[in-house]
Amino acid sequence: MRSYKLTGVVLKNKDLGEVDGIVTLFTKEIGKISLKAKGVRKIKSKLSGHLMPLNITFIQAVQGKGSLDTITGAVSKEHFSSLKGDLKFLSFAYFFLEIIDKLTFEKEPSEKIYDLLIKGLQLLDSKNIEKPEILKTAFSYNLIKILGHKPKIDSCVKCSIPFNLESKKIGFDLNLGGAVCKSCNELNNKDTLPVSFDSLKVINAFDKCDLKDISRLIMKEKYFREALKIINSFNYYIFEKDYKSENLIEIIKTF
Ligand SMILES: [Zn+2]
After folding, report:
1. CA of 91 to the centre of ligand 1 (A)
2. Which residue of 18, 58, 138, 194 is surrounded by the most CB atoms within 10 Å?
3. What's the confidence (pLDDT) of residue 127?
């Protein structure tokens, strides 16, 4: 049986029978993969500590007879312990894991997604983030972009007229995946959300800035809110997924 090595972030664990588990990772080498972890739920398991969600772990696996390959060895190289000790940051980290799990397919490698995930987790672990909600949206934006749905925001998606400070009554057409000018913005189009030029600038910053600089952006709160609403609605519109971790984020906010 062929054995191989991977490095990846553990996205989730699932029980399999009495003592085994299925571990899903997003790896540098082959993207998302689910592997069988034998005996991982036994108290004395040597593997379990290394296979906790969020860990970056070196994996050795062997090709299985069934649909899943089996983990034969695991050593975690990063636990993000600072992040794990803080419920608020942890809830955002779970969102990163969940959105990557839900929007990617198995064995489709993407170094860009891997790097985005590592960078997002490192930033949360540094706790040097004032507004994790903005980081979360920038993270979603970048993932949507890597997956081939970059929204068009610098000019009208229908007539290509560029936007500027004078542009009024701009809309964001979820179906067309971009902003529409006043003349092209049909009334009563349920797929179009109002958006201001300044909010488009926030989205542009998600596109151009490094993730670590996002929370340092200076912009009025209402423009951030509007940009967040656009990106989150666009995400739901394209992929039609709900994220359990968003409930967790809301609950923890009220503590
Ligand atoms: Zn137009």
Report:
1. 40
2. 138
3. 85
